[in-house]
Specification:
This protein is an alpha/beta fold and 314 residues long. The chain has two domains: 117 residues, 3-Layer(aba) Sandwich (Rossmann fold), CATH 3.40.50; 145 residues, Rossmann fold (3-Layer(aba) Sandwich). It contains 14 helices and 13 strands. The N and C termini lie far apart (61 Å).
Length: 314
């Protein structure tokens, strides 16, 4: 079966099921596992490569008004690939090719490929998505094996977390300029890791969050995993974070518990690596309880100097 993935997390699900050799095409953002970078790209982005976070946010808001996605299909390439199965999503209105565009293109393709939409909101939904893709690809039994492997790792974190009495108040930021609190699966990851997410809500969308609300919440731990951004790119926005009023007075600043991680590879993608994200987060919150697997990168603990060289905690 020739499969086209229109979402990085879908690509990772497909590969987790051992179907990587059947991938005919992927998005311009698909980069894991490494071999998918060499596959034909069937999408394009309308976001300028050097756009600032503020400009990206403005583009997203403008597109939401017009119900147009920030990504478009390369229809000629899609036609050439002749997919039998297209895996896409209907969760985010702007972060992938629009559902209507995919359906319209599928209707015109030879053989009328099957299209399945993934809409994970919680961690359990990701496991359900593995089964959906496996069923669609005719390898139903593989999902059970993959899900069992992932669930065993989640259970191991849960078991260690049960013994933790002191659970810090955590704010997981999905964007800095402007601030976005986390949503969907991320508050759940915070809870499983042994923290208390104080702004984001499990199963609810992330949202623009007034800085005053963050100051009032006064997180003991600030964990930065910007949606779709690698850690180094997120670090470019640290001066914006440090310039917000009252930043130096936050408990997380006073204790030095501010971390940044790769949102693009981990926390933003509702696929198998959400379990990696859980392990990275758990280690950051409780390093003596949750040892970090050797194959995963630790979240970087930021110093005040890195964030705002001219700011001193009072």
């Amino acid at each position: 079966m020739r499969i086209v993935s229109l979402l990085p997390s879908a690509t990772e699900i497909i590969c987790e099921l051992g179907l990587g050799h059947q991938l005919a095409g992927v998005t311009h953002e698909c980069d894991y596992p490494a071999f998918v970078r060499t596959l034909p790209k069937v999408t394009r982005t309308l976001i300028p490569k050097d756009a600032s976070s503020r400009v990206i946010d403005e583009l997203v808001r403008e597109r939401l008004k017009t119900q147009r996605a920030l990504y478009s299909l390369d229809v000629p390439t899609l036609e050439r690939l002749r997919p039998e199965l297209i895996v896409t999503q209907a969760l985010c209105d702007v972060c992938a090719v629009s559902e209507s565009e995919v359906e319209a293109a599928a209707c015109e393709l030879p053989g009328r490929p099957r299209v399945i939409n993934l809409e994970p909101i919680r961690l359990a939904d990701v496991f359900t998505c593995l089964q959906l893709v496996a069923d669609a690809a005719g390898v139903s039994s593989r999902a059970g094996e993959a899900v069992a492997r992932l669930k065993s790792r989640v259970t191991a974190v849960e078991n260690r977390t049960r013994g933790i009495g002191d659970r810090p108040r955590v704010l997981l930021l999905e964007w800095i300029d402007p601030p976005f609190s986390c949503g969907h699966w991320s508050p759940e990851l915070v809870r499983l890791a042994g923290g208390i997410e104080i702004v984001g809500q499990e199963g609810k969308p992330s949202r623009t969050t007034a800085w005053d609300e963050i100051v009032r919440a006064d997180p003991e731990v600030l964990f930065i995993a910007c949606c779709g951004l690698e850690a180094e790119r997120a670090r470019q926005d640290l001066p914006v974070l440090g310039a917000y009023p009252g930043f130096g007075d936050l408990s997380c600043v006073r204790s030095g518990r501010i971390y940044v991680s790769d949102g693009s590879a981990y926390f933003s993608r509702p696929g198998p690596r959400l379990v990696d994200s859980l392990e990275i987060l758990a280690h950051a919150l409780h390093p003596s309880v949750h040892l970090l697997p050797t194959n995963l990168p630790a979240a970087h603990q930021l110093t005040l100097k890195e964030i705002a060289p001219g700011t001193a905690a009072s």
